[in-house]
Amino acid sequence: MLSLSTLRIAWRNLGRNLKRTLLVAGAIAIGQFAFLGTSALMHGYGEQFFNSATGPMLGHAQVHAYDWRDDRSMDLTLDDVDGLLADIRSDPNVMNASARIYAPVMAALTEDGFMGVVVGVDPVTESHKAGLLPVDGMGDLLGEHRIMVGAGFAERHDLKPGMEIAVIGQDIDGSIASDLYIVRDVMWSAVEIIHGLGIVMSLDDAQELLMMPGQAHEIVIHTSDRELIDETVVRLSQLPSLADLEILSWDELAPFVVTMATMVDWFAYIVLIVVFIAAAASVANTMLMSTFERTHEFGMLLSLGCSPGRLSMMIAIEAAILGLLGVAIGTAVGIAFVAATSESGLNYAALGGSDEYEVAFQGMQFSLLIYPKIYAKDIVIAVSAILATSLIAVVWPIMRIVRLRPVEAMRS
Amino acid sequence: MNTNLVDVKGVTKDFHNGKITVNALRGLDLVIHEGDFLAIVGPSGSGKTTLLNLIGALDVASSGDISIFGHDLMAMSRKQRAELRLTSLGFVFQAYNLIPVLTALENVKFVLELQGVDGGRHERAMSILEDLSLGELANRRPNEMSGGQQQRVAVARAIVARPRLVLADEPTANLDSENSEALLVMMRELRDKHGMTFVFSTHDPLVMAHATRVVTLLDGRVVSDETKNAGDAAGSAN
What we know:
The structure holds two protein chains of two kinds.
Chain A: H1 4-14, H2 18-58, E1 61-65, H3 68-71, H4 81-89, E2 94-108, E3 113-121, E4 146-150, H5 151-157, E5 164-170, E6 176-187, H6 192-197, E7 198-202, H7 203-209, E8 218-223, H8 229-237, E9 245-249, H9 250-253, H10 255-293, H11 295-303, H12 308-341, E10 346-347, H13 348-351, E11 358-361, E12 364-367, E13 369-370, H14 376-393, H15 395-403, H16 406-411
Parallel strand pairs in A: 3-7, 4-6
Antiparallel strand pairs in A: 1-8, 1-9, 2-3, 2-5, 2-8, 4-7, 5-6, 10-13, 11-12
Helix pairs in contact in A: 1-12, 2-10, 2-12, 2-14, 10-12, 10-14, 10-15, 12-14, 12-15
Chain B: E1 4-17, E2 20-33, E3 37-41, H1 48-55, E4 63-68, E5 71-72, H2 78-88, E6 89-92, H3 104-114, H4 121-131, H5 147-159, E7 165-169, H6 177-194, E8 197-201, H7 205-210, E9 213-218, E10 221-227
Parallel strand pairs in B: 3-8, 3-9, 6-7, 7-8
Antiparallel strand pairs in B: 1-2, 1-4, 4-5, 9-10
């Protein structure tokens, strides 16, 4: 039934009212561009959100002693941390694994004390873009009783580099732990516990202070690719050394991030639905007008022996070509938009008149510079959906054609 | 030449427009023989076009019987009537009715394609166009041709599949006398060469002059049926 003539007639019919065809194709193209552009921005935002959420604090996965996350009890520790880290790092998907210690303490400059939290970190393994020490050289400032303090913490308690502070807490045996430390620098961090309360010291210093030799509270893992997280977690959980420990992926640790990512996806789908409705209305209107205008011609074709099925196919092909024409233009413009902005990013702050490009909220650092990303699946979904929508839109015109009687149509 | 191609018996056709019923045909009887070059004439509203539409399986009679090539047209489904039109009938319309987005050649080839002819479509279509002196216009679209040229393309389209019966509704109505004469001579030649049967509905005296048989309708009935002697028809080879 799908013959060359049918295709030829369908294609050339679109040229009979070129302005109308271009107008409808243009409307579909704008819709397609809107969908791809929105998707690309949402993907860029989603990836940035994921990186922010899983970045310095959460990681892609974490290892703890069971119940530590609920109790935060000092004695719920990971033992033989070096051995655990060696096992974890032996997995080919693991890009980074770092041990941490957390302990609430009192700090004092003079006789007045104030609350803080010791965060013991490995100066080497935390010195990367997604670690707690992202700025070059930060790791070198730690060790041998030299510490850094969070910017908010420092401001509140008037702490400055070079000052010596006393840190007093409880070690894992419940005994008093105390020592003196030199503030080497004040660090800005999006992580609230560091920014507002953080007394950041080397893991060795923290282990010594809290009587935790070879121990830590948490191991944070980053894999080389987001897609590898789940399989890595499954594999790591099968390691004998981790058998009695809790290993959780980021989505189990922070379900709200998953909710946010799902919302982002749904936002794009809502745009897609709006685009489809607009496309369907445009195509249906055009094809209905076109079939009304050509009723006499359809009567003639029927009288020649053309079957209603072939006429329907002709109309469906016209609609499909119209949809594909629009979607092709929209896709080309969408891809060009992403190509032009994916490297340099789109500065939302500048659009709002601000020269800031990062904000911190709830322990996460968000960039206002969004890097749009486009995936082949977006294009496939949009093309398929517009094609399907175009075909659905011609059901009404086709039903009209199927009911046509040659003589009545010829009289029109 | 005496084989009955079409046998119309007691056919009526009523049209309803609200409360008004128009009796277009009122118990019409007519036999069309193979090889007829038949003109159906009569005043406007006498039922010429309605009769042509019924014989052409484009419309359904209100009552009566129509047999075409031995098949009962009244018992045929919509699909069977479409098949009949496709395989055995050719149509020439008053307003040419070519497909505007196709060239002359493509219009003629289209019918062959509808019939499912696989090979040699181009050659067959081109051959017919050349027979009708339209070879040079093969790649022109209808809007690039005169009325006479378009009507000749319509004839080419109607006969390319060698139908047994060609139905022509006022084929010369939009043509000047010179083009009308040329068209009728051409149709006579096709009839003589290929043994096709032509049935015209017309007001045109020129068509009547060329016809070998003239049937006159009045108020939906046949009031006269005149068969000319061999050689009496204009343009006759005899």
